[in-house]
Design a protein that fits this description.
This protein has about 140 residues and is of the alpha+beta class. It contains four helices and ten strands.
Length: about 140
């Protein structure tokens, strides 16, 4: 079971955050390879593990940087808004220790935040998440 453990200074204030790389989905990558087209470079992002988020979310400027087209539309609720319409995209999340998750993500405005990604329960349902607050660390296993 691949996993990683991260220590975050002042975990309570900062939250369970981890550097991830976002890359295009494997289907699109295969199509681009067969067509001898360039594969977009990964986009680095600071991601927060968020058990309060039902879906995994990326900042809405990232799909354009990866050259992605939407695969769907969904409505989300935020602390300040309801029924916000957002595009969905197929991506791979590259986590530490060679953990790779291919999933559909929601692109939403995350401006004013110190993160560019939320890892939600759709991804966490495949994992074990251990939050060790007294030691300022967490472990995520898949």
């Amino acid at each position: 079971m691949p996993s990683f453990t991260t220590q975050v200074p002042n975990l309570q204030a900062v939250g369970p955050v981890v550097e991830v790389r976002l890359v295009i989905g494997s289907i699109l990558e295969g199509i681009l390879q067969k067509s001898n087209k360039a594969i977009p470079a990964p986009v680095s992002a600071l991601a927060m593990i968020d058990t309060g988020a039902s879906g995994t979310v990326i900042r809405d400027d990232i799909p354009q940087r990866l050259g992605l087209n939407p695969v769907g539309v969904t409505s989300i609720n935020t602390p300040s808004s309801t029924n916000v319409s957002c595009f969905e995209y197929l991506v791979r999340l590259l986590l530490p220790n060679q953990v790779v998750i291919e999933t559909t993500v929601i692109a939403a405005p995350l401006q004013g935040q110190h993160i560019q990604c939320l890892i939600g329960r759709d991804t966490l349902r495949h994992s074990v998440f251990v939050y060790t607050g007294y030691a300022d660390m967490f472990t995520l296993s898949f």
